[in-house]
Amino acid sequence: MKKLLATGVIGLMLALAACGKPGAGNLTGSSSDVMTQLRTAIAAALPADGVPMTEEVALTADMATQVGLTAAQFTDLVADGTISRAMIMTVPHEMVVILAKDVSAATQLKAAIAAKYDPKKWICVFPEQASVVESGQYVLLVAGTKTYAMAATDAFAKLAGSVGTINTFFTGAG
User: Fold this and answer.
1) Which of 48, 94, 110, 115 shows a CA-CA span of 20 to 30 A to 167?
2) How far is residue 162's CA from residue 13's CA, in Å, rounded to a whole number?
3) What's the half-sphere exposure (Cβ side, CA atoms, 13 Å) at 95?
4) CA angle centred on 35, ends 114 and 83, rounded to 5°
5) Mutual angle of helices 31-45 and 146-160, in 10-degree steps
6) Whole-model pTM over 0.70
7) What DSSP string runs through 41-108?
8) What is the pLDDT of residues 37-73, one digit of tens each?
9) Which residues pair with 141 in a beta bridge?
């Protein structure tokens, strides 16, 4: 009987862990709020010369193609978005935080970005890595150095509490 009970408890624990796909997590607020938290955490984790000078702008439907989305996908799936990009166009760096309309929309956005984002859009330079990950309604896209991308996805995971699988869809200049 004890063995059956222990097996049942273990099975329940595994089932709950399997359901632990990125749920709501600990992220709250606008995409800009999350971006600020991420940039602070990344700056603390990297040396000063590992963090490019950036500007932050709101992601809008007319800019959707810059992050691999159509205007229709943006309108249908995105509640709010923020882009942090290098101030010098010869530095291949971009980080995007999107607050999706719901968890299902976040999953769709992650797939769409991985399929259509153009990591070769910079002039004569390419990021070392481009990755996308989601947690609840939030999606993070980061393209830049491997060190920065890893620091960004690590910071996102710590802030969120739980994240989906990180999809690194581009490595190197290929």
Assistant:
1) 48
2) 17
3) 28
4) 55
5) 120
6) yes
7) HHHHHS-GGGS--EEEEE--GGGGGGGT--HHHHHHHEEEEEEEEESSTTS--EEEEEEESSHHHHHH
8) 999 999 999 998 889 999 999 999 999 999 999 999 9
9) 96, 132
Both ends of the chain: CA-CA distance in Å? 59
Q: Enter the tokens of residue 106.
A: 């976040």
Q: For 70-96, how does the pLDDT look when each residue is reduced to its tens digit (9 = 90+)? A: 999 999 999 999 999 999 878 899 999
Amino acid at 32: S
- Contact assessment for residue 88 and residue 132, using Cβ atoms and an 8 Å cutoff: no
